[in-house]
Design a protein that fits this description.
Length: about 150
Amino acid sequence: MADTTRSKRHWPHFVGISLIAMAGSVLVAGCGQTSGTSHTVGHKTAMLGSSGIKMTLSYQPSPPVSLKTVHTQVTLMASNGKPVTDAQVTMQLIMLEMTMPPRQIHLKNDGKGHYSGHSIFLMAGPWRMMTDITVKGKTMKESLTVHVSN
């Protein structure tokens, strides 16, 4: 009888220690995942139709995370290897599994062929990043589908 009473008194203590250990494991695992993806950069390179312009789209983090800032850069190079410095570049983020208004980003021109901006994906799932590039009155489009994580 004395052994049963003693084990009943230690039971709450054992449960408390177990819960603290499990919570610590979850926090450590979550921290490792977040820091592992925050510095990864996604890339896509495409030729824009018959224009001879090469577009490289970079975004960070890769994969994007919902409700976190995503930094985007488009680099444009002419067929002669020189940067395209006089373009207007916009991007629309379109949720593919749900009807939502597209999010539009106007990318800022640095004058050296790089166009950058940032946005936030509102939820996890597949999204289309539709890029519109206008050079000398001609608009070209390129798209990339990304899977946004939680």
